[in-house]
């Protein structure tokens, strides 16, 4: 099984086959609109504008599992992200990232790169870096700001 075997529904209700990301470096992030870390959307967007092209994508997955910090529906989340942070990277429907109902992509990601003491996602804005061959190469804590990941992404982009 690889990252390219998964599908997810985007924020507009369209099914996205992850095979379309073959050959690209991916940064996959569980997001929230009402979290102390929500301003990371700004850095994520800046990173996407700087590095995003045919070789790099950011995939955002809203999640309401942590203190109910993303209670809105897809339209509300999309509007919030666009109006407040000008988000242009790909956003998906709200998902669970932990537990029995976790989206399959998150079950896969956490099986590939566990966190400290546990495989579970501990909070919003946990980030997974996937290389252009579909390998999950790193996992970053929610407090790791996107600009601190730029060097790791740039290294992976040199191999694409």
From TrEMBL:
The keyword Signal does not apply. InterPro entries: Glutathione_peroxidase, GPX_AS, GPX_CS, Thioredoxin-like_sf, Thioredoxin_domain. One of its GO terms (biological process) is cellular response to oxidative stress. Residues 1-158 form the Thioredoxin domain. One of its GO terms (molecular function) is peroxidase activity. Keywords: Oxidoreductase, Peroxidase. The active site is at residue 35. Belongs to the glutathione peroxidase family. This is Glutathione peroxidase. It comes from Clostridium manihotivorum.
């Amino acid at each position: 099984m690889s990252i390219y075997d998964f599908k997810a529904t985007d924020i507009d209700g369209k099914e996205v086959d992850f095979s379309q990301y073959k050959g690209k470096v991916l940064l996959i992030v569980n997001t929230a609109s009402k979290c102390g870390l929500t301003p990371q959307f700004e850095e994520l967007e800046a990173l996407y504008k700087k590095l995003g092209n045919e070789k790099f994508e950011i995939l955002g997955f809203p999640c309401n599992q942590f203190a109910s910090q993303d209670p809105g529906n897809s339209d509300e989340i999309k509007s919030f992200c666009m109006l407040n942070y000008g988000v242009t990277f790909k956003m998906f429907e709200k998902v669970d990232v932990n537990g029995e109902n976790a989206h399959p992509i998150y079950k896969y990601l956490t099986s590939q790169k566990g966190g400290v003491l546990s495989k579970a996602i501990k909070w919003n804005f946990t980030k997974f870096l996937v290389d252009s061959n579909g390998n999950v190469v790193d996992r970053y804590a929610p407090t790791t700001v996107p600009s601190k990941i730029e060097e790791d992404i740039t290294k992976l982009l040199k191999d694409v």
